[in-house]
Amino acid sequence: MTTARHQQICLEATAYYHCISRCVRRAFLCGQDKESGVSYEHRRSWVEDRLFALAKVFCIDLCAYAIMSNHYHLVLHINKAKADSLTDSDVIDRWLSFHNPPVLIQRYLRGDIHTQDEYNAVCSIIQTWRQRLYSISWFMRLLNQFIASEANKEDGCSGHFWEGRFKSQALLDDKALAAAMAYVDLNPVRAGIAETPETSDFTSVQFRLDNLRNPKASVAYLYPFIGQNNSTQEGIPYHLADYLELLDWIGRHFHEGKTGQIAHDAPPILKRLGLNNSHWLRTYKRFEKGNMIGAKSSMKACLSLVGRKRISGTQLSTN
């Protein structure tokens, strides 16, 4: 049975979510169709460009992404505080980046609002848009509708391009966030189409590493790594260097055909987050199951918030 979206996305439980969208009808999001020989590689840029455009406008931070041949993965952070801090003009400007203004808003922008009822209606519209600017559902809608429209136009067909709704998993603690980001960034390695994270095209880890050598303005749309105990900046609560070490460690274990050995000392992030090495590798292989990810204690605490009685998801060991 499909789980209601309000039970999957709950800000009181967590602001971090892993989202996945897959194609239908044997459609190709990207990659090359071996039967027809047609290449869809150029569509990866569609997705990446659209992601950055949405991240610029929405109050949703992009932590990680991987664009595969028939699906994509995202790790998103809902930034409600940022949305609440926007002025009404900011909200209007951002929302109209992707939508045409209704007549009442056009009149408001011209200074042509004369009654209290009209002003109240304008405020109601702006409040609705403010809420949508930190809505993952609206973020994913604008991403998927655009890609589906462009792909259908190119394929000369109509109908569904994506499998129903996107899937989302709540990331309930720092361990779950690290696990999800690593899972996403290592997707090309896991699929055997890249040997290392830095050679995994159209992933957030490759984009971050490329930016270290050649700074790009778009990296501002990726949620930054800030480390722990940083009260002056918002971002992912560990350091990029530790995260890269974690990726390398998991990649050596999971990628078939690799002969690299694990160092005797586990990466610092594993020690700091209290992750169990062998349990991590087991859970990594079944990562997409369930609607939430986190330590058992985090999952139990979340149940009442999302209106559930039983745990359904991937538990991360802390032993």
* Main pleated-sheet profile: 6 strands, mixed
Structural class per helix/strand content? alpha/beta
Count the beta strands.
6
* Largest sheet strand order: 2-3-1-4-5-6
What coarse outline follows from CA principal-axis ratios? Answer: globular
Percent in helix: 40-55%
Q: Ends: how far apart?
A: 33 Å
Q: From N to C, what is the helix and strand string? A: HEHEEHHHHHEHHHHHHEHE
Mean pLDDT: 81
Radius of gyration: 21 Å
- Uncertain parts: 257-266
Question: How many helix segments?
Answer: 14
Content of β-strand: 5-15%
Characterise the protein shown here.
The chain has 319 residues and is of the alpha/beta class. Helices cover 45% and strands 11% of the residues. The protein has helices spanning 5-8, 43-57, 80-85, 88-95, 103-109, 116-132, 136-155, 174-185, 187-190, 204-213, 240-254, 268-273, 277-285, 296-306; strands at residues 16-22, 60-67, 71-78, 167-171, 292-294, 313-315. Strands 2-3-1-4-5-6 form a six-stranded mixed sheet, sandwiched between helices. Helix 2 runs antiparallel to helix 7 (136-155) and helix 4 packs across helix 6. The radius of gyration is 21 Å and the shape is globular. The two termini are 33 Å apart. The model is unreliable at 257-266 (pLDDT under 50).
